[in-house]
Amino acid sequence: MSPSDTTLVCDIEVTNRAGIHTRVALMIIKTMEKFSCFASITHKSTGHTADCHSMLDLLSLGAACGDTVVLSVTGQDAETLQAELMSLFERNFDEDDEAETVT
Question: Using CA atoms in the order 83, 86, 20, 10, what is the torsion angle rounded to 10 degrees?
Answer without folding.
Answer: 100
